[in-house]
Amino acid sequence: MRATSKPIARLDGALRAPGDKSCSHRALMFAGLAEGTSVIEGLLEGEDVKDTAKAMAACGAHVERLSLRRWKVTGVGAAGLKNPEGVLDMGNSGTGARLMMGLVAGQKLKATFDGDVSLRSRPMGRVLDPLSEMGAKNESNGGKLPLTLEGAPLTAIEYTPPHASAQVKSCVMLAGLGATGTTIVNEPRKTRDHTERMLRAFGVTVDVEEKDGGTRVSLEGGQKLVATNVDIPGDPSSATFLWAAGLLVQEGSVSVLNVMENPTRDGLVHAAKAMGADLEVTKTGESGGEVITRITSNPSSLSAKSPDMAIVPAMIDEFPLFGVLAAFADGDTLVTGAEELRVKESDRITATVNMLKANGVHAEERPDGFLVKGCGRGGVPGGGVVNACHDHRIAMSALVMGCAAKAPVSVDDISAVATSYPDFFAHMQALGADIEQG
Ligand SMILES: O=C(O)C1=C[C@@H](OP(=O)(O)O)[C@@H](O)[C@H](O)C1
Ligand SMILES: C=C(OP(=O)(O)O)C(=O)O
């Protein structure tokens, strides 16, 4: 289905961010690995997370939806999971696929993984390589889905992923839980640390040493997970769409509540503030080992500011939206050190540049990023149709752009939005956006 976002003068209101996608995947997996029953509150009921719930159920965990966003998972303990009968269809989700591969290998299971056209195009060698080094076997389609993975008695490894990737780190750690010895992952640039934090909540000892912007994470194999109740904090990546729209329109004030503040996720807040964004972040509590904040944005004139490469992992999912902010800024913005964007749900360098160009903004690709020539506040022409490329973040970024462009912005296919933010349209409408679907 198509959607068109029309220019509007003001956005106003306060909304609760949906549950964090990364934490939701992990909560379902860890609860399924644990012995006993865990209740998960605030689970993101997006398609990606529902696919993980189905995969865990197929591996023998008891997964039940109690009520809206409240799920119960009864694990059968480390030795109790079984080989799934059918294919594990991980849909559009790189996180679901790669973390489940670590879990399957570590539990010595055999499973076939598949996904949608976007996921089938994404590289799985980055997890298959360390899993093979640990002793797992696989047959894949040239390092891509569909693939069959078979666990075996695994041996712990010390691994330095060639890419900054929380999915690779988490996959190796999940496999390490079932391996003999101490599994170590060295990260030259620290990535999101939800696996480390949440495994501890499930009773696992995880050691983390931080050094020069990187980390060394280690865990001993054979540790048992203990069931625990989990409160999923709000997703800082989903929240960005709401507060960014509040910055770009002419009037109003937008507050997003219950937003997780984690230094491995808040890159766009810093990048936007460096551009002069009127953003206020207030601590309002703590939940599940994470700080919870309210983020309030007010209409702002932005000045171009190219982000430092060191901030890239902390805003890795926010570059399509960052491209939109750069389009409304005065001056040129250059993104570098972000070549990982090429292997997300779409090639997000190409897709972001095309999104901007289709709407009259001068943008150019770079091998590891992109250049945007800002049009200034209120200066983005709009009027284009954006190819979402099966990518939720491209679709939502384009619709945010439409709120403040001179002419409406359309997206050819909005189906991917439901993978991470099924309430996006309801939330934008509640703030006063004029987005027509169909
Ligand atoms: O571990 C996670 O939950 C995620 C890690 C990141 O991917 P990479 O590990 O590929 O960078 C991110 O882009 C994705 O949205 C979620
Ligand atoms: C990259 C993303 O997710 P995944 O890798 O899980 O598909 C994302 O949500 O932006």
Give the SSE layout.
Blueprint: E1 3-6, E2 10-16, H1 21-33, E3 35-41, H2 47-58, E4 62-67, E5 70-76, E6 88-89, H3 94-106, E7 110-114, H4 117-120, H5 125-134, E8 137-140, E9 147-150, E10 154-155, E11 158-159, H6 166-177, E12 179-180, E13 182-187, H7 194-201, E14 206-211, E15 214-220, E16 230-231, H8 236-248, E17 251-261, H9 267-274, E18 278-287, E19 290-298, H10 319-327, E20 332-335, H11 348-357, E21 363-366, E22 369-373, E23 385-386, H12 392-404, E24 409-411, H13 417-420, H14 424-431, E25 434-437
Parallel strand pairs: 2-17, 3-16, 6-7, 10-12, 11-13, 23-24
Antiparallel strand pairs: 1-24, 1-25, 3-5, 4-5, 7-9, 8-9, 13-15, 14-15, 17-19, 18-19, 20-22, 21-22
Helix pairs in contact: 1-2, 1-3, 1-7, 2-3, 3-6, 5-6, 8-12, 10-11, 10-12
This protein binds shikimate-3-phosphate and phosphoenolpyruvate (PEP).
